[in-house]
Amino acid sequence: MQILDGKLVSAAIKAELAEQVAQLKAEGKKTPHLAAILVGNNGASETYVASKVKSCAEIGFNSTLLRFDEHISEKHLLDHITSLNENADIDGILVQLPLPKHINEELVINNIDPSKDVDGFHPMNVGKMVSGLPTFIPATPYGIMLMLEHYNIETKGKHAVVIGRSHIVGTPMSILLSRNSNPGNCTVTLTHSQTKNLKELCLQADIIVAAIGKPGFVTADMVKEGAVIIDVGINRIADETKKSGFRLVGDVKFDEVAPKSSYITPVPGGVGLMTIAALLKNTYHAAIGQKGGMN
Ligand SMILES: Nc1nc2c(c(=O)[nH]1)N[C@@H](CN(C=O)c1ccc(C(=O)N[C@@H](CCC(=O)O)C(=O)O)cc1)CN2
């Protein structure tokens, strides 16, 4: 069993981006600039956005964080997005999800200029991704593909079972893994809450991508010997022994599944860190006017 080390791979991607940014600066070209919008006081969202802003600074990107009270009106938020769309210095815009319930997430995403939509959530970019056209790929599935590529994991002809059909992870993941590309060329089964025979399907899987948001959902009895396990879950479990009051666990019962797997991502230190690296890659491509890094 080998650990797929998100810390190591994301550091390599960030180092490469730092060199590319230094090159842009040396040529007198524009420094990539990411704008992040954070609404409310969700602790996890604050951590993720802080990490995005910190990563920008580490590699020489500019970033702007716009923080809003959880009661901000939808109209006010849309006005801010319009002004970021019109600001020529901003290359990438992300709105951290989830948003408070009174705000229509779909409407907000649809108002981001698709050429600045570095999360790849705008329907125009989703359509391009489905059609195999160059575009921004949502950061988590993009990060997973970069991880598979880094470790040279054979995916061609393999059966991948994706657990969870969210717009930001499961659905795009199923599309990317089934593409005629490397990594890719998998036969994909996209499973969800209505799937009847999930355990049997998982037992047939060469690759499992767990993105269901349920701690420890994938257990050893669901996994074939030698399977590749990608754990997207980042669940906060109360733990009084920790200073933060919680610990992070994935959607996979790591201790019992790891010995059966050929490769496995840890939580923390796996897919989450790749999400940030992939977002930075998208932002770099937005800044140089090129969409997508894996098309
Ligand atoms: N606008 C977006 N919102 C959300 C996205 C997204 O891609 N775009 N994805 C998730 C959260 N997410 C990115 O924003 C994200 C999740 C996890 C991590 C990460 O670095 N995880 C670390 C642990 C961090 C911790 O201590 O909590 C790890 O796994 O090692 C980064 C980004 C939902 N919203």
What can you see in these coordinates?
- Belongs to the tetrahydrofolate dehydrogenase/cyclohydrolase family.
- With 295 residues, the protein is α/β, with parallel strands linked by helices.
- The protein folds into 2 domains: 27-113, Rossmann fold (3-Layer(aba) Sandwich), CATH 3.40.50; 139-273, Rossmann fold (3-Layer(aba) Sandwich).
- The chain contains 10 helices and 11 strands.
- It has helices at residues 6-26, 43-59, 74-86, 105-110, 123-131, 139-150, 170-178, 198-203, 254-257, 271-287, and strands at residues 2-3, 33-39, 62-68, 92-95, 159-163, 187-191, 207-210, 228-231, 235-238, 246-249, 263-264.
- The longest helix has 21 residues, at 6-26.
- It is globular.
- The structure holds the ligand Nc1nc2c(c(=O)[nH]1)N[C@@H](CN(C=O)c1ccc(C(=O)N[C@@H](CCC(=O)O)C(=O)O)cc1)CN2.
- Residues 47-48, 51, 94-97, 119, 139-140, 168, 234, 248, 267-270, 272-273, 275-276 line the site of the ligand Nc1nc2c(c(=O)[nH]1)N[C@@H](CN(C=O)c1ccc(C(=O)N[C@@H](CCC(=O)O)C(=O)O)cc1)CN2.
